[in-house]
Every structure is written in C-alpha cells, then in structure tokens.
Amino acid sequence: MKKxxxxxxxxxxLLQRAEVLSAENQQxxxxxxxxxxxxLARDYQLVIVHGNGPQVGLLALQNAAYTxxxxxxxxxxxxxxxxMIGFAIAQELMPFTGGAPVTTLMTRVEVDPxxxxxxxxxxxxxxxxxxxxxAELEKRYGWQMKADGQYIRRVVASPTPLxxxxxEAICTLMEAGHTVICCGGGGxxxxxxxxxxxxxxxxxxxxxxxxVLAQSIDADHLLILTxxxxxxxxxxxxxxxxxxxxxxxxxxPFAAPDGAMGPKAAAVMQFVKQTGNTAFIGALKDAPQILxxxxxxxxxx
Amino acid sequence: MKKxxxxxxxxxxLLQRAEVLSAENQQxxxxxxxxxxxxLARDYQLVIVHGNGPQVGLLALQNAAYTxxxxxxxxxxxxxxxxMIGFAIAQELMPFTGGAPVTTLMTRVEVDPxxxxxxxxxxxxxxxxxxxxxAELEKRYGWQMKADGQYIRRVVASPTPLxxxxxEAICTLMEAGHTVICCGGGGxxxxxxxxxxxxxxxxxxxxxxxxVLAQSIDADHLLILTxxxxxxxxxxxxxxxxxxxxxxxxxxPFAAPDGAMGPKAAAVMQFVKQTGNTAFIGALKDAPQILxxxxxxxxxx
Lengths: 301, 301
Fold this sequence. Notes:
Two copies of one chain form a homodimer. By secondary structure, the first copy, chain A, is an alpha/beta fold. Helices cover 34% and strands 25% of the residues of chain A. Chain A has helices at 11-14, 23-41, 53-60, 74-93, 134-141, 167-175, 206-216, 248-251, 262-275, 287-291, and strands at residues 3-9, 44-50, 102-104, 108-110, 123-129, 144-148, 151-156, 163-164, 179-181, 188-192, 197-199, 221-226, 231-233, 241-243, 245-247, 278-283, 297-300.
C-alpha cells in the first residue's frame, strides 16, 4: 500500500491574482503542478485539494453581463470552480498516473452558521482592480472591497471548516485506487439544516479544509504548496532564515490569522497535533524535494 | 439489490430558456425533481444525468464582464455547469435518501474529433435574445446565433458521445450504495490525445450520453424526463395521440435529429436495442406513474 498524502495547492499558485485570469494561464500552472504530482505519485496515493480565490471571483462576474437575475450565490460559484479547476487538473494528471483513474468529486464542507467570520469578510477573491474603482464596484455589485498591495480586491467571509460531508465517497474511491481531486476551493460551504444541509455565502480556506480532510481520511502526510519556498523567521529583515524542520510548538508564532502563513501554519499544526504525522509547507516547484527533506519546512509533533 | 435506473433530466426542465436564469428559479425546479426522485429511490438505485443548456450559456457570459482574457472554452464551462447544477440537485436530494450518500462526479465523455457536428453547430445554449440583437451578439462575442421560436439563441456543436471516461468511478460509488449525479450537461467533451484526453469546444446531448452511460453501468432502465408528457403521433393535428407502449421499431420515425423528440427517441432506441431492457420518456411531474406504466411512453424491444 502506498502512503496517502493530501496536497493543498493554492488558487494563486494556479492563477496569479495580478495576471490575466485566462484558461491558458491556468493551464500553464496546472501543467507544472502535474509534473510535480507525477513524481510524487510514484511513492504516494495523492488526494488533491486546490484553492479558487482568483477563479471564484471571476465566476462571480457572470452576473455583470446578465443583469436580469440577482447574482448567483457563492456556494454555487464555489461548486462551479470545483469543476473549472478540478477538470483541468484531472486532464493534466491523467497521462502521468499509468492508467490509474483520476476522479474529481464535488465536495461539500460543513461550517458553523454562527462563525464570527460571517461578520468580518476577509478572504480575497477575483481579479484585482485599481483603488480608484472602489466606490463604483461597491455600488455596482454590492461587493465589499479591501486593499491588496497596490490594488483593491473583493473580500468575502471565510468560516472555519468543520466536517467533510462527502468523505465517504472520497474514501471509497481511494480504496479503489483512484487519485482523487476534492474539496476544491476549500469545499462548498454548507450549514446544517433541519433536513440535510444548506449552502451559505462564503469561501472556505483550502489549507484548513485540507487539514480536516487529511485527518478524516487518515492521511500519512499533508503537503501545502504555495509561492514561498519555506516558512521564514525574521521575514523581511537581514536575519531572514528558512525554517527547515520545526515542531508544532516552534511553528505556533506563525499561525496568527493575519500573517501571510497564518492559515497554512494553523492547518499544518492542527493535522500534526491530531495525528502525530508529518506535514510540509513549501513551493510548488520543489514538491519532490520537500518530501525528501531537502527543501521547504517540515513540521513534526 | 435495488434495480438501477439512469434518469436524464432536461436542462430546460430545470431552468426554462425564456424565464430569468436565476438560482432561485433553478432551485424551484430542482425541488420538484427531488420530490419525484425521492419516490423512485424507494424502489430503485438512481443515477442522475442533467442537462445544462440554459446554464452553460449563462456561464459563457462571465467573459463579457472581464474582457482582459479570451472567453474560457466550452469544455471548462460544461465542467462548471456540472458543479452549478449537480451540487444543487445533491442538496435537495439528500433529505430524501434516508442517509444514503448522494455524490456528484465530474464526468468526461469522449467524442470523435472528426464528428460532423463540429462543422454544424446546432445545440442551443444560454438565454434567449430578441432577433434584432443578432448582429451585435455575433460581433461582440463571436457567437453563432439561430432562431429559437420568436427569439434568437446561441448554438454550439453537439457531437455524439462515444464513451464515459469516468465510468469506473461511477460503478465504484454505486456498488458502495451512493446515489450518483454524473455526466452533467452530457459530460465534459474530450477527444483522445497521444497522452490522455483533451477538452473540445462542444456541448454533448445529455439524453444520448445517458444512454451510453446506462449501457456501460448495466442499468435496468433509462428514464428520460422532459416537458412533454409522452411521445405523440400526429403531433399538432386533431389526431394527436400519446404513445403509451411502443417497440423500438415503432419509435424509429420519431428519432429524426431535427424533431422535438429526436435525440430522446434515438437515446432510448439505442439503450433498448443494445440491452433488451425497458426505457421510458415522459414529464418530470409524472415520474413515478411513468415507471408504473400509467403515464408517459414505455419502449421495449
């Protein structure tokens, strides 16, 4: 039996927020990912979770060209983004899996309707805009905008993921030997309802969802791939130093929600604490070396 | 073991092309479908295939509000529509399945790159427009437009489905007792490539795909749900009469590609001929009575 690894791949690693949000640009990043994933697939059974920040915001724009209907809600847009990105990843991965099926699952994730995040939208989605368009965008679409570097960008609520509704399907497919792409965009956010579940307007952090998923499917490892090549101490100073191997305790100062590594560090800590297994954070291009302990940040209990 | 039934549900039955393409309108139709499906689920294991005509055209409009990128290709838009509709169906079905999981699968379907349909776009997608906008829409989006009743509407290529790429995942989930939603919008159209498959610009007919699927998973029945309550002979004349029970041979005059029932009749004939099993065509609201032989059209070898 191969070891099971959950790989969380950033939406921004697939489509830079400041580049043109085109199918061609997304395809190029996914091809790079597929090459990395192919190397990992020799030793591991892969479960792939991808982000959707730029893409889900792009999907929200469809409303601008069809003003007869109110905007479609974010839960449905997240479901759309699971198709938009999951299909593209599956296509690029298939030639590398030696005939083993690659399957993309629509995945719902439960959140708490009382989550404080609903009152404080903080997750960036969609393309960036020049700051002078703020008033116009807020008025035209009813969006909440926030500064993102030199630009402004739409922000939405990002509640904490509690449970993967579709985990049984994921496990069934894994047992049958599938490479599974799931929980795209952090999963479709739903809340418990008298009968079943109801979608809510939010976009869940995909790293936190990947940690919940990795626990629920008994993964051996969690690997978070991002732009940065490691977690750094003294970042932005002459003393900046990449952390190669840290304990959960040593990583904890980096888990502040507003830090660049906040949700990633929090996700990794949660997985390692609960399972005692090893997790990794590093750059997409270094994926095989990260698992070999040569690059990135390795986190143990 | 319950009998296995593939249900094909029209995109227009979910969202009328001439009504406002809103999440609320889609939800209302899906709730009606869920009530019908709940009755069927007592006696059958359901596999649900849905159309996406109005929805995939709506998704194509996102480009109009984000002109920096070229339009995203139709294969990716079909994948988006599988999330958009599949998620909504899964949500409404869950309360009725008595705890059995409802799972939505991204599904790819192989077509022939030499299919004559690529040269003759004939499948309507998206909202309807007044005829006087034809020149403007063709120029602005590069779309091909065609009359649809009193309106005009975008048309795209609709090649014949050959093979369900993800059928192994569908079977694995069915064996584990899942209600499976798959092949949405007729499936994501792909063509064989030196290494794997490549997406193509098309929207496959979902009834024809449902027939291919029903054969590949050994379904006991194929049920096509639409607006009409049966196949009629002498339709539009005072001698109009609903066909209650016909053989494949008696149905064959109705399978002309340009007839209202064309792809539905062709799909049903293909399934019944190949398997010797029974298929049905009728209205969404009559689903349980159709299977009981009280309404709709029943087709046998």
